[in-house]
Design goal:
With about 240 residues, the chain is an alpha/beta fold. About 40% of the residues lie in helices and about 15% in strands. It is built from 7 helices and 9 strands. It has a 7-stranded parallel sheet, sandwiched between helices. A two-stranded parallel ribbon has the order 7-8. Helix 5 links the parallel strand 7 and strand 8.
Length: about 240
């Protein structure tokens, strides 16, 4: 990966700033001068302590105007809801996990943003029987047709990390059991092993800085490699300072 410091701070837009991954992205980006983070959100929400970023709050229909004004080098999309939050309604679920993701991506492409990093899910498949995985897979296929110079799709397994004001009891139980369950997941099931949200956020930032074109899908191990590369960049920036 080329050193982004050779080009100065890279402006990166973030949507989904209030979620688990989004908050980790803010925390990590705020510790380096390599990235100038610009958050775009539907509503105001408390930022992590020490956050250094610009935050624009507007209706999603106006997000394209924000992207056109700030012209980021990359877009990180960590948008997502749950079946429960969507009222167990397919249309409401698709409105966030598919329609809003695609609308934001299309707005970014029109604004000239060359790179997009999107947090999807392990097991995403447009032909899956499970609605969650099917919607994620359909969304990935649609994103691939938008025409970004570089598209990075992250496929994390079970995310480990503390959520803010979002109690997911089944997920918490799975996280507690993860140290026992992870070693049992092998072969095609290995991709569902748990991964720390901080690693996913580091990978997202590192991938957002890459300049080589193409479409790439990253499983847990690939994200760990990208996170290690990001740490090298961040450590180098710290030494230079």
């Amino acid at each position: 990966m080329s050193d982004p410091r050779a080009f100065g701070p890279v402006r990166v837009a973030l949507v989904g700033a209030t979620g688990l991954i989004g908050r980790r992205v803010i925390e990590i980006a705020s510790q380096t001068d390599d990235v100038r983070l610009v958050g775009i959100a539907r509503r105001e929400a408390p930022l992590p302590p020490g956050a250094r970023m610009e935050m624009f709050v507007s209706d999603p229909s106006k997000w394209g105007e924000v992207l056109d004004a700030v012209r980021p080098r990359a877009l990180i999309c960590a948008l997502g809801t749950t079946w429960k939050k969507a009222g167990r309604d397919e249309a409401a679920f698709r409105a966030v996990d598919q329609e809003l993701v695609l609308a934001t991506a299309e707005a970014a492409k029109r604004a000239g943003v060359p790179n997009m990093v999107v947090v999807s899910a392990a097991g995403a498949n447009s032909r899956a029987k499970a609605l969650y995985m099917r919607v994620k897979g359909e969304t990935e296929e649609a994103l691939s047709r938008i025409g970004f110079k570089r598209l990075d799709i992250l496929h994390p397994g079970l995310l480990r990390g503390e959520r803010v004001d979002d109690l997911r009891f089944a997920e918490r139980a799975a996280i507690i059991a993860a140290p026992l369950i992870d070693p049992l997941l092998s072969g095609s099931w290995e991709r569902f092993r748990s991964i720390d949200a901080e690693l996913v956020a580091e990978a997202a930032l590192g991938l957002a800085l890459r300049r080589a074109g193409g479409r790439f899908t990253h499983d847990n191990e690939a994200m760990r490699r990208a996170a290690r590369e990001w740490r090298k960049v961040a450590a180098g920036a710290g030494e230079a300072a």
